[in-house]
Amino acid sequence: MTLAVEFENVSRHFGAVRAVDGVDMAIPEGAFFAMLGPSGSGKTTCLRLISGFETPTAGTIRIFGQDAGRVPPNRRNVNTVFQDYALFPHMTVQQNVEYGLMVKGIDRRTRARRAGEMLGLVQLDGFGPRRPGELSGGQRQRVALARALVNEPRVLLLDEPLGALDLKLREAMQDELKALQHRLGITFVFVTHDQGEALSMADRVAVFSAGRLVQVGSPAEVYDRPRTRFVADFVGSSNVLPPALAARLGGPAQWASLRPEAVRIVAPGAGRIDGRVVALRFLGAGTRVAVAVAGPAGAPPVVAFAPAGQPPPAEGSPVGLHWADAALHLMEGE
Does 19 reside within a domain? Predict the structure, then answer.
């Protein structure tokens, strides 16, 4: 397997702050790789280390096997799409897309041809004469993509590029980005704090916390088999069960994860444990049902998911909860 990007014990410190702390990471060529984590987790700093906008305090970064420490940012075969798009407002769309080629000294006719091809690729044929201020948020996002892709990078870095879009447009752009990556076959490295984006778009997901890479795997692996309490709680929604409660629910006395959609609401006495409904939250596709169960002091309610078409129990009513043995996932630690 060819690696597009490889981190070997990479750290980046800002004074006493360890923004990236001993990260080992391998990004395969042609992958759609998502770096997921809350603000301050180190994911954007990792992206800047790949691009060359930051230099590591320690460790080695390789891009297609070459030590990136010896390659200046403008000589790395990577391009970045920024969160705010960073388009030049005084230039037309065509000029924005051509800009990188102009800096490289590409002749005007070739620039125009390649920029036109990229605008067609992102479904903006005919938009060349417009200025960024005349475009919608989604259209500006496509221009930023075209400008990054026109230089034919082997790795495209995307720094939360969908964060400024409304929900419907963000979902549409997720589909477009995934289709574009499949069509081009190049490596996409995508930074996001949105779990839904990472799970729905990426081939591989790396979860960051406090400057460390805490888990990497396919979306299904990260969601179904979180290694730590942090991953279970941050990626999607989960019942994170303390050891005493996990033992009471039929598992060993260690931290465990139980996804709400795996928990069925049954009649009292017909499940693994009984409890009382303490809260309901309607979500459109179903209802989240929080059930207080007997357990250690301070243990949170167990949350189940009642899908649409299944009337949820009334608040305050007694219920039973049941799940398959495999649904209770044991974790390595907190």
Answer: yes
> What tens digit of pLDDT does each residue of 264-291 get?
999 999 999 999 999 999 998 899 999 9
- Residue written as token pair 């230039």: 91
- Do the domain assignments include residue 95? yes
> Which residue is associated with the tokens 């799409």?
81
Tokens of 108: 């005007």
In eight-state DSSP terms, residue 89 is T
Q: What is the CATH number of the domain that holds 108?
A: 3.40.50.300
Q: Is the pLDDT of residue 261 over 80?
A: yes
Strands (DSSP E) found in the chain? 3-14, 17-28, 32-36, 58-63, 66-67, 78-81, 155-159, 187-192, 204-209, 212-217, 239-241, 256-258, 264-266, 273-282, 286-293, 302-307, 318-322, 329-330
- 75-84, 141-150, 160-169: least confidently modelled range: 160-169
Tell whether the torsion through CA atoms of 322, 325, 326 and 331 is positive or negative: positive
Last residue of a domain, one of 184, 210, 231: 231
Total count of domains within the chain: 2
Same domain? 39 vs 174: yes
pTM, two decimal places: 0.88
Q: What CATH code is carried by the domain that includes residue 298?
A: 2.40.50.140
How confident is the model over 234-243, as pLDDT tens digits?
Answer: 998 899 988 8
* End position of a domain, from candidates 231, 266, 286: 231
Q: Is residue 145 part of a domain?
A: yes
Q: What percent of the chain has pLDDT over 70?
A: 99
